[in-house]
Amino acid sequence: MGTEEPVVVGVGPVSAEEVIRVARLGARVRISEEAMSTMAKSRQWIAALAGYPTPVYGVSTGFGALAIRHIPLEKRAQLQRSLIRSHAAGNGPEVEREVVRALMLLRLSTLATGHTGVRPEVAQVYAHLLSAGITPVVYEYGSLGCSGDLAPLAHVGLAVIGEGTVRDAEGRPTPAAEALRAAGIAPVSLEEKEGLALVNGTDGMLGMLLLACDDLRHLLRLADITAAMSVEGLLGTDRVFAADLQSLRPHPGQAAAAENMTRLLAGSDIVRSHAGPGCTVVQDAYSLRCAPQVAGAARDTLAHAEQVAERELASAVDNPVVTADGRVESNGNFHGAPLAYVLDFLAIVVADVASMSERRTDRFLDVARSHGLPPFLAADPGVDSGHMIAQYTQAAIVSELKRLAVPASVDSIPSSAMQEDHVSMGWSAARKLRRALDGLTRVLAVEALTAARGLDLRAPLAPSLATGAVRDAIREHVAGPGTDRYLAPEIDAVVALASSGALLASAEAVVGTLA
């Protein structure tokens, strides 16, 4: 686990950066004294309501369509325990550790606001589990993105009460009771409303959105790098990326992408070689010329998604909720529509950026469009096939990305005997976005691999220092042009460089941080 300073969860929201630290870097967690005091104060309102004859949802009633059932005092602890057990109905593959840690921190953040009415000791178990590296096993299927991410959060709640299965800090599947005992963590016995407070949030959707935004920020800068390599290797021009041309259409993302590409191509002998009046190419193809427009629109969409995520981070999502003046009110803030929409928007963005990347790769391989490069960049075309099938791999991924771009949020299947008759499907939107981001990484890696070979084949003309540095980073793992070799490991090697940030780092070491 992380050895850095712990993330402190207070009454105010955690930041996106703190979520990333906990989810991906294993940062420890502690709860502020203010938050502990606030939770204790709000719990007093729930304790007082527990004895009222007037039914209060989640305190003295059943759940969902069963809210009409009044629950006697002696069965209310069983009510909360039964809620967690019955709602822990997930199925399918395990959800990734980073996703589970993100949703745990986000649920803890809401508990710490005092608006859920749980006792401080319940929230404390979340902090202890995160700090000990204990991760409840959560499954792929079970959330409709409304009434919160019910099944995923219930599987976490199951671990909080010492039941179900977790993975310990070493990743071994372990009974929760055993893992908690080994870590010195006491499970809790839930009281009125507490089980409901553990499951009624958008934390899974939000956690995956924050992780996706972190990934996409990196990948859009990488897309500018691979686009610049392709423009260069395909004898394109950098004049179209000039700031005065971009300012005629003042979208901020477009300006940032164009500036990145200008910096990346600065000083290129290859670009300079055909920049004079003797060049007969009037305009480059759209996949080269319009790269900033597409990558820029992607950035602007990402900025919108980050704004939605920031608002959700500042939210206390629960139902019913404890207000500042002690009222316990039902509400609809658990509906995942705001998150579901932007998760779907980002899947569209990912598919389109990948689609343009694939088109640039294909131009390298077509002798009619590559401006003098050998067919398929092969050493002995006909005997060798070069990168022919690498483009097939890209095309297969892009085709899947287009399917993944079909919105999940336009669907709704009623549940709970029509009490919950419209749902967001935001969890599903988040799951497919994660798969899409993996696909985009692979598509950009194939473009980088192909463009690097294209740059080598332009010798003795030299690429820019920045694109040359990226090419050199690839060459540390993949040999340059030659007769056909086993290609899959070479693609995998560049995918690893793309995923780790090594390709981006090699370019930024030359030109500084890209926008």
TrEMBL record:
Kind of enzyme, top EC level?
A: lyase
| Primary location class | cytoplasm
Q: Pfam families given for it?
A: Lyase_aromatic
Q: Which UniProt keywords apply?
A: Histidine metabolism, Lyase
SUPFAM superfamilies, per the entry = L-aspartase-like
PROSITE patterns in alphabetical order: PAL_HISTIDASE (PS00488)
| Presence of keyword Lyase | yes
Catalyses: L-histidine = trans-urocanate + NH4(+)
Q: What family does this belong to?
A: Belongs to the PAL/histidase family.
- Full protein name: Histidine ammonia-lyase
UniProt source species:
Rhodococcus tibetensis
Q: In the record, what lineage is assigned to the organism producing the protein?
A: Bacteria, Bacillati, Actinomycetota, Actinomycetes, Mycobacteriales
